[in-house]
Design a protein that fits this description.
Helix content: over 70%
Structural class: mainly alpha
Shape: rod-shaped
Strand content: under 5%
Order of helices and strands: H
Number of helices: 1
């Protein structure tokens, strides 16, 4: 009978350790998933930033072209 009690206690200890390990693994997995989500969001933000910069550059180039045309007209009529 004492052998069975000792065996049950050992098995309960092993089970508790396994439950603890499982909880830690779940926490690590959740953390990794959040890291991946954050990385994906960062990549999307960077893409939007690049697009915005390109749009600003394109606008500046168009303004420069228009300014150059106006200066050219002023020289022609001036």
């Amino acid at each position: 009978m004492e052998d069975k009690v000792a065996e049950v206690e050992i098995l309960q200890g092993v089970l508790q350790k396994e439950e603890f390990i499982l909880a830690e693994l779940k926490a690590a997995l959740a953390l990794e998933e959040r890291r991946k989500e954050a990385k994906g969001k960062a990549i999307k933000l960077e893409a939007r930033e690049v697009k915005s910069v390109l749009e600003v550059v394109a606008h500046i180039v168009e303004e420069f072209k228009a300014s150059f045309k106006i200066k050219k007209l002023n020289v022609a009529f001036g």
